[in-house]
């Protein structure tokens, strides 16, 4: 596990102390997602998994000065060590902050512009490896950094026709306003990937939210058997069940949704970073290390 963590280069950080202020009431996920509305316009149709991140209030090294949206499909097992290939698009919304020059340089070599956007390309490494697949990137309106796993997907993203839907996951559950990551995976009916850590567990569709203080992972699924299968991505370590949903929580969710909340297991260091790694597998990425 430690080696896999280093392969993905997820930073580990402690979660801080629990706030004594009254806990905000849950809000519909659709309301929570309004902050990502501009970024979602870049999301091509037909994606199987969606990951929304808002780390702007965290401290380094997990902090980010931008909103991030990822969408992907067709996850594959790695050829060697590292992360398997997939088809997908990532959007960074820097809102009012300037895009750092270093971030622009990371996108690679200049290519002819696409739809008026500054376009760059970065080659992959043999066999893929960690983040080793080629990427196409663009700077849009000096606000968005859009990267894709192919030129064709980048062109689809830059058309800004995104009207994302979440298939069998709708209607979505209510989420805690302090959520920093929300992952929606609609993988029901897909064939599980043959990988050491099978991220497409029985082709399950589910929703997961990460809360930072205290660290909690909340999972929703429409079938108890599917919920039990998907929670295996977080167990036996570093997370364990905290409790079943309270009666009030059940009433607040769509009637057919099953709910589970996980907390860090005793003795687990830096659980927020650990949770980020496991969310990557929940999203669908295949890891071998």
Write the layout of secondary structure elements.
Blueprint: H1 2-8, E1 27-28, H2 29-32, H3 37-40, E2 49-54, E3 67-73, E4 82-83, E5 87-93, H4 101-106, E6 109-114, E7 117-122, E8 135-140, E9 144-148, H5 151-158, E10 174-175, E11 181-185, E12 206-212, E13 215-221, H6 224-231, E14 239-244, H7 247-252, E15 258-264, H8 271-283, E16 287-288
Antiparallel strand pairs: 1-10, 2-3, 2-11, 3-5, 4-16, 5-9, 6-7, 7-8, 8-9, 11-12, 12-13, 13-15, 14-15
Written overview of the protein:
By secondary structure, the chain is an alpha+beta fold. The protein is 19% helix and 29% strand. The chain contains eight helices and 16 strands. The protein has helices spanning 2-8, 29-32, 37-40, 101-106, 151-158, 224-231, 247-252, 271-283, and strands at 27-28, 49-54, 67-73, 82-83, 87-93, 109-114, 117-122, 135-140, 144-148, 174-175, 181-185, 206-212, 215-221, 239-244, 258-264, 287-288. The model is unreliable at 1-20 (pLDDT under 50).
